[in-house]
Amino acid sequence: MRCFSKLLLALTALASLSLGSLARAAPCEQRTPTVFVIKGETNQALADCVAATLKSTTTEVIVDSQGGPAGVAIDIAERLAALPNLTLNVTGQCASSCSNYFLPIARRLVVGPRALILVHGGIDPAQVASASADEAPALQAIAEKQRAFALRHGIPPGWLLYRTAEAPTRVDGLDGAYRWPNEPRFRLHLVEAPMLRSCLPWLDIGDYQARLEAERLTPTGIARLKRDGLIATGSIVCNTAAWQAAS
After folding, report:
1. Is the dihedral of CA 71, 236, 184, 228 positive or negative?
2. pLDDT string in tens for the chain (247-residue length)
3. Nearest to 69 by CA among 111, 26, 40
4. 217-224: long-range contacts (C-beta < 8 A, 24 or more apart)?
5. For residue 171, how many C-alpha atoms fall within 13 Å in the half-sphere facing its CB?
6. Domains of the chain
7. Closest CA to 14 of 65, 61, 72
């Protein structure tokens, strides 16, 4: 849990909007009958806002989120999943729990200038096994909730960088190579088109890769990504690995 808190702080630093303004604003807004806006951490305040505000007429969700607690994010994602043919419009970043759970229930992805899709994995047996005795039961419950969500929505384990307790450094659900050599300091994965198309084949990603190549994957951009602890997924793809049976 302590590592997650540090990671969440790092994700927050990547946000392009003012945190002072965000603190004063509601975390969500039904901007029009068809457009819904999500801003900031995927926490209980956001979950309450979505429950009170989201209209069934919504066809587009505009999001700029650094992610947050997985269990709450799954609850929000289930509400969004009730919206058919949803477009997810990422204006800043969709990271951590946002990318883990919101992106897979969409059917179309739109990205704004310099937008980022970032993953670092969900809650898995490797994380549960490394947790303290006090933290493990809560993590196990979230892992089971995540697995049920993934099975309901056809999300492969590779999308969540799923690791087993027996092989905590290996992600069996992915094949391919990162754009540059991976190192422990690279805490976040900048998702490229091959991973998106293989893990979430129902998602129309439009010109996402072209934007990445022009805005982020230039020599200067790559140097900055490395400095910020990010690694681009390159040719990484989800394979046919299936979810393990529930323990």
Report:
1. negative
2. 545 455 555 555 444 444 444 445 899 999 999 999 999 999 999 999 999 999 999 999 999 999 999 999 999 999 999 999 999 999 999 999 999 999 999 999 999 999 999 999 999 999 999 999 999 999 999 999 999 999 999 999 999 999 999 999 999 999 999 999 999 899 999 999 999 999 999 999 999 999 999 999 999 999 999 999 999 999 999 999 999 776 5
3. 40
4. 217/179, 222/179, 222/180
5. 21
6. 2-170 (3.90.226)
7. 65
Can you read off the two tokens belonging to residue 57? Answer: 């007429």
Measuring CA to CA, which residue among 111, 119, 129 is closest to residue 212?
Answer: 111
The secondary element (H helix, E strand) that includes residue 24 is helix 19-24
**Amino acid identity at 186:** F
d(CA 147, CA 144): 5
Enter the pTM of the model: 0.88
27 in Cβ contact with 54 (< 8 Å): no
